[in-house]
């Protein structure tokens, strides 16, 4: 049976590639992002079933998407909390308070909002998979990435706690921890795009694998590096 899949931040990068992976798998895919024009173009390109404009940092938008999913599909099988962004990458001393708050809200609060929004639905279904996208910044340290890293580390540890809460209801919660890939993320942060070997499609295949595991199996978290990356920890 086709799964009902909701992916945030689906207009580009990991989200768009993940939408295509699920569509190629025969699933029904709801794609969300803030920019509806860009999102509709992505939906048309990958064959998504529904494009919904939403701001993941706004609780009311989560309430609206829950109501829409209930009305149109009656259930949600897979939630992919992918939306995020660096906002700005610089030393902590140079951050404004608004930049700090925006970074945490987009990268951490939104994931918590999303899991909370669909928790009751999945509890009632007694099935479902929540997949939260973190970053290798959650595990490793680089200068100027401190605020973003704090948010993404929060995603990783939130996911572990959320899984323990959802486990009695047969609901899985997984955290996917990707390395950098050329997705437009770096350009949006103003630091210049990378030429990483890791592709958005590689993360998409990881997310699809996690979602397609037998219900008896769960991945706690998985880190995916590009083969060209070398990390020398402190």
Order of helices and strands: EHEHEHEHEHEHHE
The N- to C-terminal Cα distance equals: 47 Å
Classify the beta-strand content into a percent band: 5-15%
**How many strands?**
7
Q: What is the share of helical residues? A: 40-55%
Largest sheet: 7 strands, parallel
User: How are the strands ordered across the major sheet?
Assistant: 3-2-1-4-5-6-7
Envelope shape: globular
Low-confidence region ranges:
none
Number of helices: 7
Cα Rg: 17 Å
Class from helix and strand fractions: alpha/beta
Overall pLDDT metric: 94
Keywords:
234 residues; alpha/beta; seven-stranded parallel sheet; 7 strands
List the helices and strands and how they pair.
Elements: E1 4-7, H1 13-24, E2 28-33, H2 36-46, E3 50-53, H3 59-72, E4 78-81, H4 97-125, E5 129-133, H5 146-166, E6 172-178, H6 185-189, H7 200-212, E7 221-224
Parallel strand pairs: 1-2, 1-4, 2-3, 4-5, 5-6, 6-7
Helix pairs in contact: 1-7, 3-4, 4-5
Would you give an account of this structure?
The protein has 234 residues and is of the alpha/beta class. It is 45% helix and 15% strand. It has seven helices and seven strands; from the N terminus they run βαβαβαβαβαβααβ. A seven-stranded parallel sheet has the order 3-2-1-4-5-6-7, with helices on both faces. Helix 1 crosses helix 7 and helix 3 (59-72) runs parallel beside helix 4. The radius of gyration is 17 Å and the shape is globular.
């Amino acid at each position: 049976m086709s799964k009902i899949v909701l992916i945030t931040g689906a207009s580009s990068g990991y989200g768009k590639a993940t939408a295509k992976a699920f569509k190629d798998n025969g699933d029904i895919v709801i794609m969300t992002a803030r920019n509806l024009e860009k999102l509709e173009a992505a939906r048309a390109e990958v064959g998504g079933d529904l494009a919904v404009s939403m701001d993941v940092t706004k609780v009311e938008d989560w309430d609206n998407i829950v109501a829409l999913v209930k009305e149109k599909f009656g259930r949600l099988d897979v939630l992919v909390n992918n939306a995020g962004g660096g906002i700005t990458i610089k030393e902590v001393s140079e951050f404004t308070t608004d930049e700090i708050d925006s970074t945490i809200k987009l990268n951490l609060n939104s994931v918590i909002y999303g899991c909370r929004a669909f928790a009751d639905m999945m509890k009632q279904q007694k099935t479902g998979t929540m997949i939260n996208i973190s970053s290798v910044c959650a595990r490793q340290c680089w200068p100027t990435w401190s605020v973003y890293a704090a948010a993404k580390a929060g995603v990783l540890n939130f996911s572990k706690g959320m899984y323990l809460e959802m486990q009695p209801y047969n609901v899985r919660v997984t955290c996917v921890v990707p390395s950098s890939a050329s997705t437009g993320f770096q350009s949006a942060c103003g630091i210049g795009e990378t030429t990483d070997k890791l592709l958005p499609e590689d993360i998409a295949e990881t997310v699809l694998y996690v979602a397609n595991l037998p219900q008896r199996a769960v991945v706690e978290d998985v880190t995916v590096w590009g083969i060209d990356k070398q990390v020398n920890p402190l």
